[in-house]
């Protein structure tokens, strides 16, 4: 496999560049705008939205295999291409139960994996009885196209729920059948694991990490998470069950909740490289991006182990509308010992937009708590990045 087509041209595709070069692989990207980050590193670009299957047909003619950095594709239309012999990795059948959050919850539950209590909001009359079952607070989620907390709302009472449903239906011309309602999990920590499965069915997992979200957006990741060996084993087993059941080839990101009494619940599956695995670019022998390309190209998988005692990754999120490239803040952050900064080269900053990230490798010598140290470094980075 020499030419890999990637549907989506954001930072996740952009971060495949070094690995592609190392492996001697060419990347052909399908993405709508010439300003999308991955256009700069692509051998060739097909300019079209990710759900434009006729553009993917053109992409397929230029590539040996097609993969995804964005899963919001038109599966039905793509399946016609698959029937004609186009190779998608992961396969389309594996994406089918994952693109809708309600279908995804059902799939995980049916596999016997632990998930929060959930219901679909399909009939208006039933909302009252359903909310009685779940109680407040509850979490309302758009079933499709949610990411970075867009379309996820924590709801405290019935009036707000009704209001939100009505607002959302108006703005998105959707009806309520497109919502999922689930119990609010009073988690102690949020965790994630990156797992990859090869063409031969070999599975490799990265260290379990702690992720920290604010307003439903990932702010920081600490690798490894401070959890018990049993909890690590349980999460690795979840990853194995899921990837084997889906028979996927490629990287998956799995987000989880850890409750105060040590229970683990699966929150969400991303069928691609994931923000919770960015630390691997600098902290692991084989990054998630290289690992994904290895898997989809049919190469042997690499070593996912941490090459340092621990690492902390901080997202550099936009906090204003601007065209600045934030040179001086980036320079200051880069001066932190063992800091590796990745700037996605987006031309425009908007509040909440992921503009870059920084990973700091930690040796933890003379530190009582690795987690507290990682949090301290994260605070230092954020105090440089965000205006006071
Ligand atoms: P997205 O697809 O937008 O990332 P998620 O379902 O992952 O949406 O939710 C984003 C964040 O919202 C989670 O990381 C978590 O902090 C919070 N969240 C989501 N679902 C729940 C829940 N059932 N209970 C508590 N918090 C939740």
| The CATH class of the largest domain | Alpha Beta
Q: Round the Cα radius of gyration to an integer and report it.
A: 21 Å
Q: How large a portion of the residues is in β-strands, by DSSP E?
A: 25-35%
| Major sheet description | 9 strands, antiparallel
Description:
Helices cover 31% and strands 27% of the residues. With 388 residues, it is α+β, with helices and mostly antiparallel strands. It has 3 domains: 2-88, Rossmann fold (3-Layer(aba) Sandwich); 117-183, Dna Ligase, domain 1 (2-Layer Sandwich); 187-385, ATP-grasp fold, B domain (D-amino Acid Aminotransferase, Chain A, domain 1, 2-Layer Sandwich). β11 (209-214) and β12 (217-223) form a beta hairpin. α2 crosses α11 (288-296). The model has no long low-confidence stretch (mean pLDDT 94). It binds adenosine-5'-diphosphate.
Labels describing this entry:
single chain, 388 residues, Rossmann fold, Dna Ligase, domain 1, D-amino Acid Aminotransferase, Chain A, domain 1, 9-stranded antiparallel beta sheet, 4-stranded parallel beta sheet, 13 helices, 17 strands, 31% helix, 27% strand, binds adenosine-5'-diphosphate
Write the layout of secondary structure elements.
Blueprint: E1 3-7, H1 11-14, H2 17-23, E2 26-31, E3 44-47, H3 53-61, E4 65-68, H4 75-83, H5 92-95, H6 101-110, E5 118-121, H7 127-134, E6 138-142, E7 152-155, H8 158-172, E8 179-183, E9 187-197, E10 203-205, E11 209-214, E12 217-223, H9 229-246, E13 250-259, E14 264-270, H10 280-283, H11 288-296, E15 310-317, H12 327-334, E16 339-343, E17 354-362, H13 370-385
Parallel strand pairs: 1-2, 1-4, 2-3
Antiparallel strand pairs: 5-8, 6-7, 6-8, 9-10, 9-11, 9-13, 11-12, 12-15, 13-14, 15-17, 16-17
Helix pairs in contact: 2-11
The structure holds adenosine-5'-diphosphate.
Adenosine-5'-diphosphate binds next to strand 6 and strand 14.
């Amino acid at each position: 496999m020499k030419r890999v087509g990637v549907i989506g041209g954001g930072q996740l595709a952009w971060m495949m560049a070094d690995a592609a070069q190392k492996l001697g692989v060419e990347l052909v990207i399908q993405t709508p705008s010439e300003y999308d980050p991955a256009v700069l590193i692509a051998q060739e670009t097909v300019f079209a939205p990710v759900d434009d299957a006729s553009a993917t047909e053109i992409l397929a003619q230029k590539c040996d295999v097609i993969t995804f950095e964005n899963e919001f594709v038109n599966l039905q239309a793509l399946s016609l291409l698959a029937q004609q012999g186009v190779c998608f990795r992961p396969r389309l059948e594996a994406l089918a139960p994952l693109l809708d959050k309600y279908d995804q919850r059902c799939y995980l539950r049916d596999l016997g994996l632990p998930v929060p209590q959930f219901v679909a909001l399909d009939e208006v009359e039933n909302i009252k009885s359903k909310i009685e079952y779940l109680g407040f607070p509850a979490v309302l989620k758009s079933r499709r196209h949610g990411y970075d907390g867009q379309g996820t709302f924590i709801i405290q009472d019935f009036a707000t729920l009704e209001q939100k449903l009505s607002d959302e239906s108006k703005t998105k011309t959707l009806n309520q059948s497109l919502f999922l309602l689930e119990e609010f999990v009073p988690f102690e920590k949020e965790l994630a694991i990156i797992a990859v499965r090869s063409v031969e069915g070999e599975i490799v997992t990265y260290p379990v990490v702690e992720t920290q979200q604010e307003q439903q957006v990932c702010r920081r990741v600490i690798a490894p998470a401070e959890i018990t060996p049993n909890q690590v084993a349980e999460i690795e087993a979840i990853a194995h069950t899921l990837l084997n059941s889906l028979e996927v080839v490629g990287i998956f990101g799995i987000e989880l909740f850890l409750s105060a009494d040590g229970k683990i619940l699966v929150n969400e599956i991303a069928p691609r490289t994931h923000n919770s695995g960015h630390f691997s670019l600098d902290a692991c022998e084989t990054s998630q991006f290289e690992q994904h390309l290895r898997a989809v190209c049919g190469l042997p998988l690499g070593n996912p182990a941490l090459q340092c005692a621990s690492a902390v990754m901080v997202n550099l999120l936009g906090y204003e509308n601007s065209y600045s490239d934030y040179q001086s803040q980036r320079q200051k952050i880069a001066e932190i010992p063992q800091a590796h900064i990745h700037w996605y080269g987006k031309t425009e900053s908007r509040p909440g937009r992921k503009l870059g990230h920084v990973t700091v490798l930690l040796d933890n010598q003379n530190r009582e708590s690795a987690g507290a140290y990682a949090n301290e470094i994260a605070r230092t980075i954020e105090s440089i990045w965000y205006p006071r």
